[in-house]
Write a structure and sequence with these properties.
- By secondary structure, this protein is mostly helical.
- It has a domain of 51 residues.
- Helix content is 81%, strand content 0%.
- It contains three helices and no strands.
- Helix 2 packs antiparallel against helix 3.
- The longest helix has 26 residues.
- It is flat, with a radius of gyration of 18 Å.
Length: 80
């Protein structure tokens, strides 16, 4: 019984991964893989900076985070 449940869980995880926007489809060339990794790295960095920006109170630090966020978004726009 547990085995059937596990396979259903794996199946649902695979389906949700397929529905994920920006997820790689099929086989990628090395250049496409590198661009995908770079894009994901920038997205994670952007999420981290946004989270830090929510809790920042020091004006100079807020400015630094805002500038960093703008730079990350510009770099992401170049990759698209």
């Amino acid at each position: 019984m547990a085995r059937g449940w596990e396979s259903k869980s794996v199946e649902s995880q695979m389906e949700s991964a397929e529905d994920k926007p920006g997820a790689p489809r099929g086989v990628m060339t090395p250049e496409e893989a590198a661009r995908y990794r770079q894009r994901e790295t920038l997205r994670l960095a952007r999420a981290r900076v946004r989270q830090q920006l929510e809790s920042a109170t020091e004006p100079r630090y807020v400015k630094l985070l805002t500038d960093t966020l703008q730079d990350l978004e510009a770099r992401l726009a170049q990759l698209k």
